[in-house]
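User: Predict the full complex structure for these chains.
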Amino acid sequence: MILTATFLSAFAGAALILLLPERHAPLARWIALATALAGLGFAKAAFFFFDNAAGAPDFQYLTKIPWVPSLGISFSTGADGISLVLLVLTGIIAVTGVLFSWNVTHRPRAFFAFYLIIIGGVYGVFQSFDLFLLFVFYEIVIIPKYFLIAAWGSTNREYGAMKLTIYSVAGSALVLLALIATYAASGAHSFDLFALADPSKAHFAPSFQAWAFPVMFIGFAVLAGIWPFHTWAPTGHVAAPTAVSMLLAGVVMKLGSYAALRVAMTLFPQGLDQWRIVIAVLATAGIVFGALVALAQKDLKFTVGYSSIAHMGFVLLGLMTLNLAGLSGSVLQMFSHGIIGGLLFAVVGRMIYDRTHTRDIAALGKMALARELPFATLTFTVASVASMGLPGFSGFIAEFRILSGSWESLPWLLIPACIGVVITVAFTLRALQRAFFPSVTPAAGDHPFEPITLPEKLGGVLLMAATLFIGLFPSVILDPILRSFQSPLMKHLIR
Amino acid sequence: MTSLLQSLMSESILVVTALLVLGLGVSLPKARPLITAITILGGFVAAAALLLFPLDGNFLHGMVVLDPLARIFKLVILGLTLVAVVLASESFPVNHFAESLALILFGTIGMMLLVGTEDLLMIFIALELTSIPLYILAAFDKESRSSAEAGLKYFLIGSISAAFLLYGLSLIYGVTGSTNLPEIARLSGAPDPLLIAGIVLTLAGFAFKVAAVPFQLWAPDVYEGAPTAAAALIASGSKVAGIFILAKLLTSGLGHWAGAAGWEQFLPGWAPVLALMSAASIMLGNITALAQSNVKRLLAYSAIAHGGYLLLGLCSATTDSLTAVLFYVVIYALTTAGAFGVVAIVEKQRGGSRLDDFNGLAKSSPVLALCLLVFFISLAGIPPLAGFFGKLYLFTSALANGQHLWLVIVAVAMNAVSLYYYLIVLKHAFVLIGPEDVRPANAPASQVLVAFLALAVLALGLAPNLLLTPLSKDKTTKVAALTTDHLP
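Assistant: Here is the predicted structure of the two-chain assembly.
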């Protein structure tokens, strides 16, 4: 119940905001904040009360209510360590996203209602164990994303919104096709993930897995920004308003990687073996090309956007290692990049762009940002350091585990992946230095910027604290993740 | 004789209502509210008669056949008629208002007879009774050139297709020696070439009714030119009745001659014909819709595509897939009727149904825009709305016998394409800025009805069992009666 409360509260908040009379429209952000805080509270409580004892069940908080019995559809939710980590991430991003959109005054009711619907959908995906339910939540996210970008976005927003939506829908179509085929082929007459993954109830012929696995995996991975289907991400992230960039980079891309792990990889082990190398190569290509393209950007937000592709490449590479270090590192990287990506977009979109009205790195270099906006500079520096994977921040432990995992099972991919790490350092330092610490310190700006507001500071501190905390005490979330890979559903992934 | 009257009680009530309305139109032509009220009252009494005096059985040698499933569909058709009447009452031209409502009622009687028969002759008569009032309604706006064009086109192509149908039915009768569907089904054996010809001609006639390629050409012009209330009835009620009787004809009459439509495993029969029409309709409808700038025209291409999805389900002819088809056609009819309702109100506010007329709808009438969102997202098959569950069920059941994967791939891919044009309309409503001086729509009843339909679409998406259970509760008397499962 505490688990379902996460998305129920989000949808209730959205409904409440829609019912708000016009004259009380400014209240929308308060309702959104309260809802997001409640969701974070529920997620953290679920995380805290999860029974980690040795004999405790692998999946807890299970709810199962028949929904459409004639098709074997049920409302089935629950959580293991992986779900809980991502639920907490969603809560953190939801709260900080509201804080960073405190200045939205254009049609605030619609903005926050759409925002909360996305949050609710994301919470739902991370806890669904019925494939129909999971897909419902997965698709709920699509339409609000479009409107938030097209109506509240910035550069080239209608194009960016439509491109992002078309990619999402194309990915969903692949998933839907694989889902229907899976249901029909299983003979289990059920959409329940546990039943479908149980060889005694459902059996998938190798020839079926050989095509169903790539269709479903790539379908999900489009949303995770897998190369070469990643181009929606930078365009969409740049066009989106700050809170939506944070959501997209922070949690929506994780929907893809999470579902690919939870559904495609668990259901089709033989298909996974056949396609593993191909996907690992695509993931590594994403790391290298994402980083290289980020290096060439003139626009600060595009730099951050392409860095997301590189970081998500690590997530997918970690999934393909099929050993404990790589898989757990992959989930850790989902959390870590969620926080760091969210933080980077918050600084660039809200703290900088809303004040300077430019994202051009060279132009920003002339504005003496380090002196004029010290808090923004501090936040961006911390985020950059975390993004480069320096020890002490969450990115280090995640990428380290992924790389050590791939050393064990895919050693020949380690070299390009490490080159990707180096380029990541290069583009991050380049952006940081040119935009914030140019070699020639410019004279005092002729137009003072509005100071950083309290909500922005709160949001920035929350995200920085999260990445630092996990960097220093990774076992807090690593232990539940490691444990999750021992469950009957997931353990056969470790070869 | 009494039982025959009983079996046709609701239809008789509608006939009386229609005559009464016609009489009122002559004596009190200005009393629009009264005329509307009597029409609606007649519809409710007819529905009540269906619910209070349920009668199952076979009358006049299969001319009138009543079962719980037919009753559900008669109720659905009455509901869709209510939508058309309410929309007409607030948007139809002043002249000959009563006649327009009477025509809607006559068309409804045709549709209700159509779902309650198992006889080829009666099928043809009921189809004509449905079509002729609709031809007139399409041309009802006498001042509009495009309405006249719509009526003429609909009439010409409709009559040609009726000729096809009649020829096909007569060939079927000639080969089998019976006009009664169960009796036709008793004859089995290798298909006679003449019978195949008859089946194909019959399918051509029905393809016109559901606007399937290659008999779709009338749809865009009629949907665009006809008065919106008439278009709503053409798009919803007549489609429900057409799909229902087509399903019945193919399965309980011609079930032996289905053939097969698996990829590279085609066998002669009606299934491959349907499969090809389905694939072509899905592709042509969805792709052509991308280029439309008028929302009614866009809905017409969307209707062609949806006709294709429905035919896809009919290809399989298992209990599950027929339940899915019937479920989906009801959902589709509710959704599209609602979408036409929104269009009718917008037309009233802004004087047109071009994409630009929808600009800023979210600001000028937020509830209406929200309803539009619900209908279009449901048509695009996005959860949690009913259209999603309908499509998922349809595609899943079509795959169940493992043959139609190629069709499902086409359908899923094209369904992804369809989101683009629905989103374009929604973009105009939600993102673009509209004119400042929009008069509020003076159509309270239509607005309430549209909001109700939107809620229904949402509710059926969250709880599909509300409709699914009645459709499949009692397998022996309901959908199973239609399917080929029980045939040897």
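Chain B touches chain A through 33 residues (CB under 8 Å).
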